[in-house]
Design a protein that fits this description.
The chain is an alpha+beta fold. The protein is 13% helix and 26% strand. The strands form 3 sheets. Strands 3, 4, 5, 6, 7, 8, 9, 10, 13, 14, 15, 16, 17 and 18 form a 14-stranded antiparallel beta sheet that branches. The chain has a 3-stranded antiparallel beta sheet with strand order 2-1-19, with no helix packed on it. A hairpin with a 6-residue loop joins strand 17 and strand 18. The longest helix has 22 residues.
Length: 556
């Protein structure tokens, strides 16, 4: 059987019952929705609602420096599909390319292979660091300590250390942003694609299925199982729930999908996707929240809870929420991801993610967190729905045809950190030259539970002898440009260098400046900071970025 959308030849019958929802927006508590029905008649179905009126067309969550999978020809096709006069390179941005692919799936375009897009495993991916960012670093004669101390600085704390990432060949700001956002990109991509397939399943059912009227729900679990069974990457999945409901006020659609594979085994995984979408006056005006949760079992106590275990393994939940809106060609999103403790008891229940994660106004609440615990040891969750580790916040405002816009990504490995690391990025597209430019800035922010997104400055000695975590009024910056159909950005300006000391300079400290894993005699000594800084002492780091044209996304 082909992996493209099949034709539905067997009607699925069910009775229609009223849908009881607890609030405008179709949420539902931990007790589950009280009604079920396949819409089969005109009293409980909407006569005519286009896919674009009931789905967030154009929405993608990704790095502005990420390139999609489009070839040169496909990129040109994507640009033409957007009905705008763009160069061949415009459609290659992930933000543009994937939007076109999702819309093709939504339209039931059988030339788009679901097998090449869908992956259950992508619900469980997490972002990481590029090789050029924050490597482990040998040092000796550290001047912030006794002057004779030597050791190894841990990875992750040193910022954009090398100008170019060896593995990808990209400038470090591009490589790091792409690597850090990989987890949220893949989770939200799968969530949106699967919801698009659900909507296309209704449209392609030959009238057997329809969107529900206000206060009702469409159950498409059986036909949707048939669709997923035709996708090789999704074989073995059990569909526990696949529904679309409309709140009693006729304002908000709620899509929900719950699936599992290898249930009851140590390799068991399950996923839940919930999309609450509120259409506006046109298909180019909408708002909503997407939630994607992946549940599995692990052996690492660092992010586990001793009272959330199955068969000697820790129950883990990776939860992502995305608040979004669209106004014409402008799309805004605010994504939050974190690792929590817990696993579903019953996937037929609704909103299971709400039972393991603290969600406020549809978004994860970073202020609700579990205690840090000793390194490498589990904690007791008790009744808390707080995050255990690896929390990220990613905000963006971009133009859907080019991917140009403003972005802010901040991350924090553990709940005990006093500050988070952050990349602020402005992305532009030049239609005449068919080129895009990324201007990125790295510095520390307040902890994710309290930050307003402002970059505070650099902490040059985070983990060395005599470390002080007070940010100094300096930051790293790098400008990178991509021309036409090139696959690699080129750095045109970099202000990254410093020594891992409180002063960001070295007098006697020896350190592995080129991060090759060896410490040559005198290496790094005499280093002066080559960091960027505000033009005036009276201007904050954030103020300096604003003066250069950076604007913080509203949904961060």
């Amino acid at each position: 059987m082909s992996s493209s959308l099949p034709s539905f030849v067997r009607p699925v019958l069910a009775l229609a019952f009223p849908l009881l929802l607890t609030a405008c927006g179709g949420g539902g508590g931990s007790g589950g929705e009280l009604a079920l029905a396949l819409v089969t008649n005109t009293t409980t179905a909407q006569a005519s609602v286009s896919a674009s009126e009931s789905f967030p067309t154009g929405l993608v969550v990704a790095s502005p420096a990420e390139l999609g999978g489009a070839s040169a020809a496909a990129a040109s096709t994507t640009a033409r599909a957007l009905a705008v006069p763009l160069g061949a390179g415009a459609g290659r941005a992930e933000l543009t390319d994937m939007a076109a692919r999702i819309e093709a799936v939504l339209a039931g375009d059988t030339s788009v292979s679901l097998g090449g897009l869908l992956s259950f495993g992508n619900l469980f991916l997490q972002g990481g660091n590029a090789g050029c960012y924050g490597p482990q670093l040998l040092y000796a004669n550290h001047e912030d300590g006794s002057g004779t101390e030597s050791g190894l600085l841990p990875g992750g704390d040193l910022g954009l250390w090398l100008p170019t990432d060896a593995a990808s060949g990209q400038p470090c700001v591009v490589a790091q942003l792409n690597e850090r956002t990989a987890g949220v990109k893949h989770a939200t991509r799968q969530g949106l694609l699967l919801m698009a397939v659900m909507r296309a399943t209704i449209a392609g059912s030959g009238g057997v299925l329809a969107l529900p009227a206000a206060g009702f729900r469409t159950d498409l679990s059986t036909p949707f199982s048939t669709v997923l069974a035709a996708v090789p990457a999704l074989t073995g999945l059990t569909v526990h729930a696949a529904t679309v409901s409309l709140d009693p006020f006729g304002k908000t659609y709620t899509y929900r999908l719950a699936v599992s594979r290898n249930a009851g085994t140590s390799a068991g995984r399950s996923g839940e996707i919930v999309l609450q979408h509120r259409p506006g006056a046109t298909a180019a005006a909408y708002s909503g929240v997407l939630r994607v949760a992946g549940f599995d079992l692990g052996t690492d106590a660092t992010f586990g809870c001793s009272d959330r275990m199955t068969g000697g393994r820790y129950q883990r939940a990776r939860v992502t929420t995305v608040r979004y809106s669209r106004h014409g060609y402008q799309i805004d999103f605010g994504a939050r991801s974190g690792q929590y403790c817990g696993a579903p008891a019953d996937l037929a229940d609704t909103d299971y993610a709400r039972q393991v994660a603290s969600i406020s106004a549809g978004e994860l609440d970073p202020a609700v967190q579990l205690p840090a615990g000793a390194p490498g040891s589990a904690v007791v969750a008790g009744t808390s729905t707080g995050w255990r580790g690896n929390f990220d916040r990613f905000g963006g405002r971009y133009e859907r045809t080019t991917g140009a816009g403003q972005f802010l990504y901040a991350w924090q490995a553990g709940t005990g950190d006093s500050h988070a690391r952050a990349l602020a990025v402005s992305s532009t597209y030049d239609s005449a030259a068919d080129s895009r430019t990324v201007q990125g800035y790295f510095a520390f922010t307040d902890a994710l539970a309290t930050t307003d997104g402002s970059l505070l400055g650099m902490v040059c000695n985070w983990a060395g002898p005599g470390a002080v975590h007070t940010p100094a009024a300096r930051f790293q910056s790098q400008t990178a440009t991509l021309a036409g159909l090139a696959s690699t950005f080129v750095a045109t300006a970099s202000h990254l260098g410093y020594a891992p000391t409180k002063a960001c300079a070295s007098t006697t400290t020896v350190f592995d400046a080129n991060a090759d894993g060896t410490l040559a005699g005198g290496e790094g000594q005499g280093t002066l900071p080559a960091l960027d800084a505000p033009a005036s002492p009276s201007v904050s780091v954030q103020g300096e970025l604003v003066s250069r044209g950076y604007r913080q996304p509203g949904y961060f």
